[in-house]
Structures
1.
Amino acid sequence: MKYGFIGVGNMAQAIIQGLLKAQTVSSTDINVHSFHQAHADQVAQKMHLTAQASNEAVILASDVVFLAVPANQILDLLTHERKPLTESMPIVVSMAAGVSLTEMSAILPGLAIVRIMPNVNVALNQGFTAVVGNDQAASHATQQMLAVFQQLGTALEMPEADFTTVSALAGSSPAFAYIFIDALARAGVEAGLSKPVADQIAAQAVQGSAAAVLAGQKSPWDLVDQVCSPGGTTVAGVLALQENGFATAAIKAVEATIQKDQSNQS
């Protein structure tokens, strides 16, 4: 299977890195083009991809075409490239927030169109991706894309109505997690550790804690209780987090992300 990317921004590069890391495709079977062609050429050279001279060339050379352009350009792009898309009939995959399957299908009736909502951790095959397809994708394309992204982490078929929440909870949350890791590490630096060592300790602690949650035997709060000894140091730290609004701040961050996504759609 050959993949095409129209646009090679951060998320497109993360997906490409994940595909190559999972060894699901040869690098030369990934076609790329961008409005900023010099940038696309640099990415292609760096990752040994096939740079194409136009969007149409990407479409005609690919079985799956990823639309990795800003959301406000998606519908114009589909309109402009309608002819090659309807001639070659690839699976069209959009990662744009706020552009619905209904809007895209109105331009390309009869084509299998899939929406995905990944996060950048797909680059490490540790991502989360929500997947949903239109009626034409239901028989095969949605399952194909689920299989692809299950090799890049966790992938679930989810209702399109949930994509705004998924965007906040999965797409934006890595940034929140990085802030938490950095804050833990800076506290370690304040106490005398070097920043690289503190970063490593904090990141490993978060990674291990996430693995414990994903094991599914206990809820996150049960795991908190498991770490907290009566009258111990950890419970003192947990109380300090609560007193300073840690949980509220995390909830507000997700809510703000959802509200911003909704305002972009209006």
2.
Amino acid sequence: MADILNIIHSKKAQMPKKEQFLAEYISNNIKTVIKSSIQKLSKDTGISTATIVRFCQEIGVDGFSELKLELAALQLPKEPAEYDEIDIGEDVSSIKDKMATRFKSVIDITKSGIDEKTISKLVKEINQASRILAYGVGASGLVANDLYQKFLRLGKAITYTTDFHIAATEIGNFTPNDILILISNQGMTTEISDLLEVGKSVGIKTVLLTAQPRTAIAKKADLVLLTQDIGEPKIRSGATTSMISQLFVVDVLVFAYISRYSDKVFENLKRSNKTTLIHKNKKRGK
């Protein structure tokens, strides 16, 4: 299992308020929680034992006893080690191990949060769509570009832009059979919210990849693909872990599409490879 504190952190924003409070209490009182019974924790927090059990299920442990074992396995660190990006003077070997651990944690947590029915439904709708637009801002824009390139090679009529006005204009020409795929880690980006409204106004299907499914934007989208945010280090070089989570979800979606429509996909891939070979062969002088 990934670091239990990372899991709690990533799922906290998706929980009801009482469970959010419980998540915060557990994170800040690890030693106390390990020594407590479920009844004592209920008394200390004012939260019912039923809610505590539900919280445990939400974070993927069988019960309160298993939660205490997971917390004890951390050897009571004040913070998860992955939350520190580097220490001054740290050697390359240690940095490699730390980054590998961090990326593995976010992938494990993302995997556990993916709803397979939502993926399957979106795969079917992508197959039926006449046109698709992928849009994201900042690091999420890189993920939108990745999704665009992959589905383009699979033969889908998909476009990608970072320009809000071009995106809005394109959506204005969409029909109800088309799809708008928006990517936003926090689900609070103004451009994402406005494009979602534009999409709704023309009656197209809207999809949101986000780590925050309780936001107003997420509640308006037709489908939500859940990514994860385990937090970035204080010294941030970029939104790395959230982007890794988004890319993982995109790949699950892409390969689910390939698996379901393999015959059509492989034929499209052959044509795509053939056209790109023209340029490659010219560069080689063939």
3.
Amino acid sequence: MENKNILITGASGNIGTELLRGLKEIGCKHNIVAADYMPENDSSTQQLFDTMPYRRLDFAKPEGFDLALEGIDIVFLLRPPHLADIKKYFYPFVAAMKKHNISKVVFLSVQGAESQSFIPHHKLEKLILAYQMEYVFLRPSYFMQNLTTTLLYDIQKNKRIFMPSGKLRFNWVDARDIGLVGAHVLNDFEAYTNQALEITGSDFAGFGEVARLINQHLQTPITYVSPNLLRFYFAKRKQGIAPAMIFVMIMLHFLPRLGKNQPRLTDVVEKVTGKKSTTLEEFVKREAGKLSQV
């Protein structure tokens, strides 16, 4: 495939940063254009590529889509967690992609999206298919980085993991592995066209097990508390989290308790990158600096 111009949306986030890191690591042959809603505040990501153009892209402001998409051949599409209304925010964006003759997209979805019609990822996958685009759906399992982002407030301030997950066990995957898989896919898009790749790690663990692992390696007093939904909602509202984001957290951490099937493990990370996936223990050791600030 000849050199293409690739737009990376959500470039400053966890996955965007790791994707850019991965593209640099493999020596990507294409031209990378980063995009975010406040590019002027993201000097750290821009440092990964000295000459990387950075464009402003806000999915809530469709008037900026044309400038963001000009000259682009492939889009890496990342949905911001708080934007769940696919018709409002992403119908116009995908239509703008078609207007600019952009027919190739790599979408960061989620494991199980194909069978969960109520989640935004499923609806966005359907939208991409409806436009008959060439696609790759990346469907990762539960991010290890949730420990250092979404869950970090309670870990640091209250010395606990606070989620309504009961005894639910998650398959944990490192965003760094997701980024590296995405980098290989973007670098050789034709080899993966019209595929859905489930990206998982090798660990199944519940939050109680994770708390014990953190304590074991970092000598911290973390506990796991599984509140009922009402207690969880009001605790997060008191913390200042918007209702829409709380419902996303409930969707990810409570609703899977109602399912009967445990998500499967895959070897996609090793097949695509040639490297073993990061274990949860390796992640805890690597991120000890953040996790031990309790």
